[in-house]
Amino acid sequence: MLAEGASVVFADVNEFTGTAALQEAVQSGHAARARFVKADVSQEADVASIVAVARSEFGRLDCMFNNAGVPGALGPLDEMRADEWDFTFAVLARSAFLGIKHSTRLFKQQGTGGVIINTASISGLVGGSGPRAYSAAKAAVIHLSTVAAVDLAPYRIRVNAICPGAILTPLGGKDQQAAMDRMKRSQPWPDHGRPEDIAGTACFLASDDARFITGTTIVVDGGACAAGPNIEQRTGRGASWSGTSGIHFGTTGVKGELRRVP
Known about the structure:
It is a single chain. With 262 residues, this protein is α/β, with parallel strands linked by helices. It has one domain: NAD(P)-binding Rossmann-like Domain (Rossmann fold, 3-Layer(aba) Sandwich). The chain has helices at 15-27, 44-58, 82-110, 132-152, 176-185, 195-206, 231-235, 238-243; strands at residues 8-12, 34-38, 63-66, 72-74, 114-119, 157-164, 217-220, 244-248, 257-260. Strands 3-5-6-7 form a four-stranded parallel sheet, sandwiched between helices. A three-stranded antiparallel sheet has the order 4-8-9. Strands 1-2 form a two-stranded parallel ribbon. Helix 2 runs parallel beside helix 3 (82-110) and helix 3 (82-110) packs parallel to helix 4. The radius of gyration is 18 Å and the shape is globular. The termini are far apart.
């Protein structure tokens, strides 16, 4: 988005990774148009502060991209702790609601419309394609996007969701080659997904080229959903997702906990 000419306020609960991203923006010559805010997007005051920084630093807000995510609670539903379920929904679904709420308030004040993009997942479309709480939370994000699109269309505020498939990011684990091999098995397309594939989709949805697109979900998955829902079997992840319980905090910097399911 910086490369396309936008001014960007980005937030992360992990100050180390957030600062690193800001430094990358500086090195690419975008220092004047980039700001970083340390924020926990499951907390309403933090989300409100992100929107406030956009307004104070750049004068307005045109697009809200609710993109934060963690794997969250792991294991079978009957072994999952309620607080781990709650954490997962707070980061994945509550954060999207808060982003919609506070960006919409500013969009309405500005009176010129706006764009909201929510990152969901193909795990929210079919069973057997991800951790259970994660999948349910992403399904909530998909439906929330359609509900919000209907409510906000009269204000020319567009709301859409992106459903990534297997994308190679640090969440794939330390063994990047193993992650790439696993991802290739999850889809018909011969190459693994890249973060740029999602970024390009988000930039399109944020642009005027998508002015008549709202209330839709764009799947970016190399054909994984088209090939059928047996993603766990194709990747060999079924045993790992059902044989352990616990929680994975993603790239937040917080150490997770794994428990063997008896």
